[in-house]
Amino acid sequence: MVVTIDGPAGSGKSTAARKLAARLQIPYLDTGAMYRAVAYECLRRHVPLSDEKAVQTLAAALPLELDCGPTHTRIRIDGRDVSEAIRTLAVSAATSCVARMSSVRTLLVAEQRRIGQGLGAFVAEGRDQGSVVFPHADVKFVLEASLSRRAERRFQEMTADGENVTLDSVRENLRARDAVDSRQWEPLLKNRAATVIDTTDLTIAEVIERMIDHISALGHAIPTTS
């Protein structure tokens, strides 16, 4: 079974994807981490984000390795684990630039499909998983939430990790990303190809329960919990 979860930053899709994958006992594929890794390496190597050809060249040669387990996706660059380093606000801002580059997207989408083929069954999370990368997925979700709630969540995550940010800066970063990112899952909403869940006032347990109920209603077997 292939499940895709798309939606804006802070909607809870990463947490939901990890927990859903664990519940279904299949790997979790965080495709957004790949764009973050490219952005992180551009910043580290001082590759100008205004130069798409340079970013494409870096992405094509970047030795990325993803370790997809049922509760995590660890990402390494040339053997270095950068799973935490790619989560800063600076990398988030740079990632929006990288994600707009069609040549880079073409490279990473092909790699995501290759990884997915190797995994077989998985939960993929990102912004174009159900619309572009895995259009024939068995189950598709789009998670949404208000901007203020998403900003609060992301602010709490980042400050808990020790990053010096303000709620206003996080909110503006999300607002800027929304202007670009939303185009990627809009096709799923227009043709009702995905089940939409508004997570603004839901706990993560409630989100997972709704997902499991929907997957079960489609006739897919749900592993029993011990």
Percent strand equals 15-25%
Query: What general form does the structure show?
Result: globular
**Mean residue pLDDT:** 92
CATH architecture: 3-Layer(aba) Sandwich
For the largest sheet, list the strands in their spatial order.
2-6-1-7-8
CATH class: Alpha Beta
The major beta sheet can be summarized as: 5 strands, parallel
Find the CATH superfamily. P-loop containing nucleotide triphosphate hydrolases
- The ordered H/E elements are EHEHHEEEHHEHEHHEH
Helicity range: 40-55%
Instruction: Give the number of helices.
Output: 9
Question: How would you describe this structure to a colleague?
Answer:
The chain is of the alpha/beta class. It has a single domain, classed as Rossmann fold (3-Layer(aba) Sandwich), CATH 3.40.50.300. 54% of the residues lie in helices and 15% in strands. The strands form 2 sheets. A 5-stranded parallel sheet has the order 2-6-1-7-8, sandwiched between helices. α2 (32-45) packs across α4. The longest helix has 24 residues, at 167-190.
